[in-house]
Write a structure and sequence with these properties.
By secondary structure, the chain is an alpha+beta fold. The chain has helices at 11-36, 164-192, 204-234, 241-251, 253-274, 284-303, 314-346, 351-387, 391-396, 398-429, 431-437, 440-467, 472-481; strands spanning 48-52, 58-59, 65-70, 80-84, 95-98, 104-108, 116-125, 132-141, 150-151, 487-488. It has 13 helices and ten strands. Helix 3 (204-234) crosses helix 7 (314-346). It is elongated, with a radius of gyration of 27 Å.
């Protein structure tokens, strides 16, 4: 944090202190984050909700069929079930079907199976959030005397799936790229451009830097989406990597929404390239289209998020998730633009021009940030209620721990934002403070905003982890349904 209350400290002496303090904060948070985001148990999404027979059942006769219902709708091109004997060998003569509800798989079983314990290995791909899952259940034909430990089928492990770090980092990369791109035009048109008029003669570096920033944002958004596609395809079990990419794009809902996302990103980039960055009134049509496309980029993310998997109130949950992502994007992207575009640009201004510009800019940005935080608070509380719901789920699941980290980081970020709003902004408006301190308060602003950005990047890692995990409420409910049985590892 900055130390704005220390008087008489010269700008050159402040920077090292802030650097040391920021490094301590970031290091401590990185350790906490690493612990909170450790993989732990497998992250299932279209998880088992009910089955007939139930895992652990002892059946007197061979069942005609085995049905399993899952918590989310299934992608039929990927989802499968197979029957194995106690030695892990696959039983031949079974046939797989899907229920009309879209949530159920049914395995027709041949008659005449010998007594013994069997396992049903299943894998799923959710059409709601695009996540894969696999596990098994076991039952016995005969009597209690026929119960034997089973050999877990080798493919029941998650060895073919992408590791958790790849799932988290790919979703982080896709989010970061999209966020900075979504924020570019809203921040420029409502925060930066309206206050550049009085310093028009000194504004050229900021305009050029903003154009370069947008180009970088488009590249980052495309690269992040490509990485996310690669990791999603990695989770598929069959074919070459190229085949998995083609199958993901052509046969899954995730692929269709990914193509829509990429198309929106490219279109937004082209519109921004043609927009009037200085003479906005001359190209109002492009400006309206840019606003529309920026809002639309968030929708494919929300349509493949946890909100899309809600059994009731799905439409409202998706709208709330999209609003949360848009508000977060403008806030996160705005901080990024301040660090990457605005603050480097003001260094080239005269002292008077810099003070004049920052005095007008900071209230504009603070107003936008407060609006975004209000939206984020309301929609975030709603999402927390949907996905967590109780103290046990918050404190005992990986999803819940990631949410705790996110909230802790958010508190620190809001504290730094409060310093900017209540201390530094007032000092920049105070002519006497400006006369005595010179560029010190501008430098302090650069440091506080930079530390905010570092914390935001770490926060988004927690968000990336949360989007790749089963919601905490579902984990607790699933654990309550589990029944322990004897197992031998293959």
């Amino acid at each position: 944090m900055t130390l704005p209350f220390v008087q008489g400290t010269r700008g050159g002496q402040i920077a090292p202190r802030i650097a040391r303090i920021s490094m301590v904060i970031v290091t401590a948070l990185a350790v906490i984050l690493a612990d909170a985001l450790s993989p732990g148990r497998a992250a299932a999404h279209a998880a088992l909700e009910s089955s007939n027979p139930v895992s652990g059942d002892v059946l007197a006769t061979v069942p005609e069929s085995i049905s399993v219902t899952y918590t989310e709708p299934l992608e039929q091109s990927y989802s499968r079930m197979a029957l194995h004997d106690s030695q892990g060998n696959q039983v031949e003569g079974v046939s797989l079907g899907f229920g009309d509800d879209g949530y159920t798989m049914v395995l027709d079983v041949p008659s005449g199976l010998p007594n013994g314990t069997y396992s049903v290995l299943w894998r799923t791909l959710s059409t709601a959030d695009g996540h894969t899952a696999q596990n098994y259940l076991a039952f016995t034909i005969g009597s209690n005397a026929d119960i034997v430990p089973i050999v877990i089928p080798g493919s029941a492990s998650a060895g073919d799936s992408a590791p958790q770090w790849a799932k988290t980092s790919s979703r982080w990369a896709a989010l970061v790229g999209a966020m900075v791109l979504i924020a570019s035009w809203p921040i420029w048109s409502t925060v930066i451009r309206p206050v550049l008029g009085p310093v028009r003669n000194e504004s050229a570096p900021i305009v050029r830097a903003m154009r370069r920033f947008v180009l970088g944002a488009v590249i980052a958004a495309i690269a992040g989406s490509l990485y996310a596609l690669a990791v999603q395809a990695w989770s598929l079990p069959e074919g070459t990597f190229f085949d998995r990419i083609i199958n993901t794009l052509g046969q899954t809902r995730y692929g269709y929404l990914w193509l829509a996302r990429l198309g929106l990103i490219v279109r937004l980039g082209l519109v921004l390239a043609a927009s009037g960055w200085w003479f906005m009134k001359r190209r109002q049509v492009e400006g309206v289209i840019a606003w529309t496309l920026a809002a639309a980029v968030a929708l494919p993310f929300s349509l493949i998020a946890h909100a899309s998997a809600q059994p009731s109130g799905r439409t409202f949950a998706i709208v709330a998730d999209a609003a949360h992502l848009l508000a977060s994007s403008v806030w996160v992207g705005g901080i990024t633009i301040l660090v990457a575009v605005v603050l480097p640009g003001v260094r080239r201004m005269t002292p008077e021009g810099r003070r004049s510009f920052l005095r007008r800019l900071l209230p504009q940005f603070s107003t936008m940030a407060l609006i975004c935080m209000a939206i984020m608070g309301l929609t975030g509380f709603y999402a927390g209620w949907l996905n967590v719901g109780n103290w046990t789920a918050l404190t005992t699941t990986t999803y819940g721990r990631a949410l705790i980290v996110k909230l802790g980081l958010l508190i620190l970020i809001l504290g730094l934002a409060g310093i900017n709003l209540l201390v530094i902004e007032r000092k920049l408006h105070n002519p006497e403070a400006n006369a005595n301190a010179g560029p010190v308060w501008s430098q302090r602003l650069r440091w506080t905003v930079t530390i905010e950005l570092v914390l935001v990047v770490i926060l988004l890692a927690a968000v990336g982890q949360m989007t790749s995990l089963q919601p905490a409420r579902d984990v607790v409910a699933e654990e309550a349904r589990q029944i322990a049985i004897g197992l031998d590892a293959a």
